[in-house]
Design goal:
single chain; transmembrane helix; membrane; transmembrane
Length: about 55
Amino acid sequence: MDLTAFLLATLVAHIGLAIFVTAHAALTGEDAGNWPYITLALGLAGVAGYFFYDEWQ
């Protein structure tokens, strides 16, 4: 795969995942916090963090 195509596909995927995190938070009434930005930077790791990260209370 061409490097440019790979980077473009990765960018599109991360943007899509960030939109998913934002939409899910809006639909469920949750606060997305910084997770959309983390998802833009880290992709699936950001999505996993959004769903599984529990703040210490």
